[in-house]
Design goal:
Length: 193
């Protein structure tokens, strides 16, 4: 079985990615390899941050790995919060703080369209690859649902009338931005064999 380190300690992301990749790949977390470092995310693009994290792990631990960065891009906010999605409400903020700030800024917005974008950066055998996944949707007026994480309680994907947080995990994993990026990663890994 193939082994790859996913440069995250976020249990939600780890669970999602393991479910998507299935039994083809054993996905290890940073904790599994003894990495407790706070990996910098100082790039101004999603691709840049994903590569920073993957390079950090590959260079310090000598392992094949992948990392992701995700941003919520809201039309009424000129694409914000984008690369700053995780820290939109400021340093030390919680996901609930970010959602409150987003809803506050969008209180009077007529255009509620948005998209989630994920970039997965893979370093394998010293070579770098990037895979992107995207899903369009709208921002709900109030949070709904108790599943998922981050902005999931206010993001309604196209073709649905429920937020990501209201969808069963298997359904979200089938249509999400991360699922689409990781599916491209999985196709790439299968093509290598």
């Amino acid at each position: 079985m193939d082994k790859l380190v996913f440069a995250t300690n976020n249990p939600h992301k780890l669970e999602e990615v393991r479910a998507i990749l299935g039994s083809d790949v054993e996905v290890l977390s940073l904790r599994d390899i003894g990495c407790a470092a706070d990996i910098p995310e100082t790039a101004d693009t999603l691709e840049g941050n994903a590569l920073l994290k993957a390079r950090f792990v590959a260079s310090r631990y000598g392992v094949d790995c992948f990392a992701d960065d995700t941003g919520l891009e809201v039309a009424a906010l000129d694409g914000a919060p984008g690369v700053y999605s995780a820290r939109f409400a400021g340093p030390g903020c919680t996901p609930a703080d970010n959602v409150r700030k987003l809803l506050g800024l969008m209180q009077d917005a007529g255009d509620r369209s948005a998209r989630f974008r994920t970039v997965v950066a893979l370093i394998r055998g010293g070579k770098e690859y990037c895979f992107e996944g995207m899903v369009g949707g709208t921002i709900a007026r109030t949070p709904a649902g108790c599943g998922g994480f981050g902005y999931d309680p206010v993001f309604v994907p196209e073709g649905y009338d429920r937020t990501f947080a209201e969808l069963p995990p298997a359904e979200k994993n089938r249509i999400s931005h991360r699922a689409r990026a990781v599916a491209k990663l999985a196709d790439f890994l299968r093509g290598e064999e």
